[in-house]
Amino acid sequence: MVDTAPFLLVTDLDNTLIGGNPEYLEEFNQVWRHCQKSGSKLVYNTGRSIESFKEHISEGTIVPDAFIGGVGTKIHTFQDQDVSFDSGIPDARWEAYLCAGGWDKEKIVEMVSKGREPYKDRIFVEEAGESPFKYTLISVEKILLEELRDNLKRELDAASLEAQIIS
After folding, report:
1. pLDDT tens, 112-159?
2. CA–CA distance from 25 to each of 30, 31, 136 (Å)?
3. Does residue 3 sit within a domain?
4. 93 & 105 share domain
5. Which residues make Cβ contacts (< 8 Å) with residue 122, sequence separation at least 6?
6. Tens of pLDDT along 1-41?
7. What is the pLDDT of residue 52?
8. HSE, side-chain direction, 13 A CA sphere, residue 61
9. Residue 135 class from Cβ within 10 Å (0-12 exposed, 13-18 middle, 19+ buried)?
10. Domain assignment of residue 132, given as a range
11. How many C-beta atoms surround the C-beta of residue 30 within 10 A?
12. What does the DSSP assignment read for 82-126?
């Protein structure tokens, strides 16, 4: 195997390292262990919470240097990749940054509740609870979510609330 200069690898998980072909995971692990020797760093970036990730990882999945979850609302670092996924340390600086950014979950929840009132039987709130900076709506009717998203964007802008809508 060729030696490499250190690099940062940021990868999604679903159908990449989770839910894919187990042979690919074994091959990735072999290549990655070689890359680690040169000081390369591995980051998993996913919409999943770290709890959901832990539930779905397969045995043999490499512990990363960092985990970005909840669509960027949570960051965990791992000091020792030989330990376990339970050894992740939440990044307090990232949480402080998000708190200082003007996020007001109470106002957001109030606005979303009001906005989804006409659709309350067809658009549901996902009660993930892992991140105070994430609020997820789900529906099988994509057109309703798009309509609600557009309405909420206008209302959030008018209220000068710091929020991003990711669809």
Report:
1. 888 888 877 887 777 655 677 887 888 778 888 888 889 888 988 888
2. 9, 10, 30
3. no
4. no
5. 139, 141, 144
6. 667 799 999 998 887 777 777 788 888 889 998 999 999 99
7. 81
8. 22
9. middle
10. 101-159
11. 10
12. TS-GGG-EE-HHHHHHHHHTT--HHHHHHHHHHHHGGGTTT-EEE
**Tokens at residue 80, please?**
């020792």
Both 34 and 89 in one domain: the answer is yes
Q: Which two tokens stand for residue 167?
A: 């669809």
Residue 62 and residue 20 share a domain: yes
Query: 10 Å Cβ neighbour count for 15?
Result: 9
- Least Cα distance to 11 among 40, 45, 47 occurs for 45
Helix axes 105-116, 142-159, angle to 10 degrees: 130
Residue 1 lies in a domain: no
Lowest mean pLDDT among 33-47, 57-71, 74-88: 74-88
If one counts the domains in the chain, the total is: 2
22 and 82 together in one domain: yes
